Amino acid sequence: MKAVAERAGVAISSVSRVISGHPDVSDSMRDRVLEAVAALGYEPDMLAQSLRTGESRTIGFVVSDISNPLFALMAHGAEIELSARGYSVLLANSLNDDVLALQQIRRMHQRRVDGLLVSAGEEHSGPIAELIAGSEIPTVLIDRKLGVPSASHVLSAHKTGVTAAVDHLYSLGHRHIALINGLQEVLPARARAKALRRAIAAAPDGIATVTTGPFTPEYGESATIELFESENPPTAIIVGGNQILVGVLKGLAALNLSMPDDVSLVTCDSLPLGDLLTPPLAVVWRNAQEIGERSAQVLLDQLEDGKPRDVRLATEYRPAGSVGAPRQGSLAHTIAHKP
What we know:
This protein is an alpha/beta fold. It contains 13 helices and 12 strands.
């Protein structure tokens, strides 16, 4: 570090600020130091720095399922924001298993991460909440509320987007709307179900049907077939997650039902290339990358002053070709006589 400082013509403390990603450094200073670093092949000993400062410059991120594009984009947004401040991200995938999520959070604590982002665990997850509450590591809960006063929260306004979707479907003539939803122990699923029921309750002659199950394609497919083989199938469905959506589309294909002629469909959280499907999918949309970025910013702020924060981000309904007026006649009769 002394050699770098001499080559760049700056103080050793200036080299330290540049290497650690400190924001209070001018562009010209940063460029001079980084040029000297490159010329000398200098590589900081992160372990030595951690022992000296008590900081690992690492943030843990525990997600429910990284194969879900929503969480992948969240992680991408968080890593961009944290990397710009000199932090590395350690990602753990809990596979929608609360026991595994608890183990992973413990391991993050053992690795002495400086902060933690968590988007895993059901709302009744007592051991997870107790572990976070008993730790001094700043933690941001993403779309989760576990009753931990010391944790920050970054939540999505699910009610806004779902209510707008229901209002649009109702205006087109739909009176029976089903939500193929995830587990009610998970905040987004519970918020979406509540929004649907409230919107339908405020509309004359409305019927709301909510099914619940795991966030898997298998559940989405079986729930879809069961709904549309019932005596009173819905004319429109809202899908409570893009992993469930894969199964819903399979179920509709198995029943030979088309959108929007036989059924209107709205999904919560878009699929990559969803706009290129025929017809394109209507969606209750939220900016997943922004969720990751804002979560990282909230965590960085809490690292600075120790104060937890609550942030709520918008959702919006984006209509598309998968939604139209309900067909005339009995859908159940149509299904029974389709080849």
